[in-house]
Specification:
The strands form 2 sheets. The chain has a 4-stranded antiparallel β-sheet, with no helix packed on it. Strands 5-4-7-8 form a 4-stranded antiparallel β-sheet, with no helix packed on it. The protein contains no helices and 8 strands. About 0% of the residues lie in helices and about 45% in strands.
């Protein structure tokens, strides 16, 4: 994956904000970021889906904008009819996040899409 520079925005209060379904640049595969999981206050849920049979997997990286060493990676290696997801209290409330979703094959990334609209 190519390194991406992130510029901080200072200390600013953010309300939790879901990303919803967010797609790779080719519009086929996706990640869903749920900032406040119903029934589990403070928990975030990340789901990644490889929706195409193209020999590539789909991966998402979610990174804390305030601490670039604090990131979560999740992969769905194949279009097998189910998505991969996990949930827990990953970040303190109101943490601004950058989210990348892309396809991968081996160590190469394809169809990279970036958003910075997620907030834990």
């Amino acid at each position: 994956m190519t390194a991406v520079a992130v510029v901080g925005t200072g200390t600013q209060a953010f309300a939790s904000r879901n990303v919803g379904w967010f797609y790779t640049s080719n519009g086929r595969d996706a990640v869903f970021f749920d900032a406040d999981l119903a029934g589990h206050p403070g928990y975030e849920k990340i789901t990644v889906c490889d929706n195409t049979t193209d020999g590539m997997g789909t991966r998402a990286v979610i990174r804390n904008q305030n601490n670039l060493d604090d990131e979560v990676l999740i992969s769905d290696p194949s279009n097998n009819g189910r998505c991969e997801s996990f949930q827990w209290d990953m970040w303190p409330e109101e943490t601004p996040l950058n989210i990348w979703v892309f396809n991968y094959k081996g160590t190469k990334a394809y169809n990279l899409e970036i958003t910075n609209s997620g907030v834990a």
